[in-house]
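Dear colleague,

Following up on Tuesday's group meeting, I ran the structure prediction for the two-component complex that the binding team flagged. I've pasted the input sequences exactly as they went in, so you can double-check that nothing got truncated or mislabelled along the way. The structure tokens for the whole assembly follow below. Feel free to forward this to whoever is handling the docking comparison.

Inputs:
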Amino acid sequence: MKKLLFLAFAAMMAVGASAQELANFGRGQQIVSPEIKGDSVTFRLNANYATVVNLYGNWMANYTDVVPLKKGANGIWEVTIAAPEPEIYTYNFIVDGVNVNDPVNYMVQRDGTRYLNMLFVPGERSANYNETAHRGTVSYKWYDSSILGSNRRLTVYTPYGYETSKKSYPVLYLLHGGGGDEEAWSSMGRAAQIMDNLIEQGKAVPMIVVMPNGNPGQQAANTMGLPVKNIDTRAPENANLYVKSLVNEIIPFIEKEYRAIPKKASRAISGLSMGGAHTFAATTLFPNTFDYILPLSAGTRESEQLDAQLQGIKKAGYKLYWIGCGTADFTYEGNQILDRALTRNGMEHTFFESTGGHEWKNWRLYLNTFAQLLFK
Amino acid sequence: MKKLLFLAFAAMMAVGASAQELANFGRGQQIVSPEIKGDSVTFRLNANYATVVNLYGNWMANYTDVVPLKKGANGIWEVTIAAPEPEIYTYNFIVDGVNVNDPVNYMVQRDGTRYLNMLFVPGERSANYNETAHRGTVSYKWYDSSILGSNRRLTVYTPYGYETSKKSYPVLYLLHGGGGDEEAWSSMGRAAQIMDNLIEQGKAVPMIVVMPNGNPGQQAANTMGLPVKNIDTRAPENANLYVKSLVNEIIPFIEKEYRAIPKKASRAISGLSMGGAHTFAATTLFPNTFDYILPLSAGTRESEQLDAQLQGIKKAGYKLYWIGCGTADFTYEGNQILDRALTRNGMEHTFFESTGGHEWKNWRLYLNTFAQLLFK
């Protein structure tokens, strides 16, 4: 590896290549990784000087399930495994104990501060995660929050044709979980691709999707390097601070800056994990704001106020209450509690159960499913 | 490292944490890296099991200038060096011969397919690379190119207040170099931060900045995983294919979708390296399109057509011809050729020379400098 580095740099110096051309480093040998053929997938790594190379992918049940690669005569390490079911996964190599990315795989997702290679297994379930012909716009915008005392970044998806149509659109507020930020849904969640596909297929109505940053101390994803306020995100009053900013600041901002229909019937809110808790808090605190309520992998606890909170929503009226959770999710029980509480309060709702746990695989599936039900 | 991984994963499993919470991996020990104090900077890495840890930063003259870290009793490797002059740099660690990122540094830049940690040394020169109070919007949009036969992604910066003002704006078309893509200027180039600062300070007029993808075979950055056409980017006719798409497709698209002033006096074009060649080609092929012409680190060669090409621009008229190049840049001679050719053709122009070579440090400086001269 070291020698390879030296050779690569020597070559660069020789042609006077620039820092930006470092991109080509490590691609001297034309290897392909990952390579999907039929039902199998092959991973390769050019690492002649390594002693042990392992593969870890998030489709493996446990971290200890790492798969060893075998070194070929050409110094290329390789392993072929059965492809996991169609979906998007992340993986990395472990070279002599150090986690490294696959240098020939361009597709990378950021998970918090970790940049992980993607494995995209095509199939019916993952078809809507591909780019389609008519693609909407993803924008990074800033809004001023006096509630949180900072200028804060949010991601906005506008559907194909938004700029030149004269129409107004309904809005889905789509919230991330703990450890995530305003880029989580558009990166790991494939939100833009899913919406593009559903809208193009006529399965979802054209809508704006707003993906804010749910960490009250942050102005933006930590990768932007901006100062972070020390706000304890576990303290209930701070969770509500963000939810108050969402309803009292973000919604008016969006309805001013975009052609968004400023009506309850044209607003949906969904979020995963912490974002599901934000969804619950926003709809119980502000029952007259959203007609579509979709907490994912969050659930709730039994509490003295629970029935009163749900009655508030029932009284205000709503069009859809949709819960999504995997049966192996650690929040599954909390989702059952919410399901039962909605039933005993006489509130129509859907409990969409999938296999699997607390993972993006499920959150993509939920968005791909519930977006078809909104604003109809 | 391996043991650390196991511990981190064990802890995760114990609390039932999700993939998204992997973000917190490796931060068990509260170490800070990089840490700037006065004129020095300290790098740290928690890698108890490593044998050799080196640091490479792009402020070092040669790759062989790597700096060794020393292991402390706590298993934390550390080195303190003199901070390079105020600017943004990239660095990585080399752990037992394998390149790895600094796991506690959130700030990362993508250079092609490489994700490199950033070192931001504050000072007068880098002050405009920070976020300021009034922040514009960065959008990723798609336009249809029949010339290149694909739907293609571009990045658009709109200044603070664009959405609610009724004004129309001039447009800077800002092109990347070889190995780059439509995200290069907004990521490594800090284009949004530089424009926000200059506009807020009243030093630049509010403008739209359009950053297209200059690789004709690509629909978008390779990280999006879209199919790539096999178009030889070195073949002159293909360079012109892109330039034709820029002038005949991108400009009309922008002037339809945005409140852009559709006039020569309100269009500027700049690009670095390959993007400088695109700037030269676009302005010689379409001399009636841009009043502001700013090739960076590109230059030209003496050729039979050179004088005729420049005379075409002179005849059409222009407001600013501005060349930027570092004296250590391998394209420096080509810039001197262009400088002399402009002089002998009686064309007013600026040759802005800096120290340094073919590097982002210079391209950020050039944008920060020339943006103050546009549309005035």
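Chain B touches chain A through 75 residues (CB under 8 Å).

Cheers,
M.
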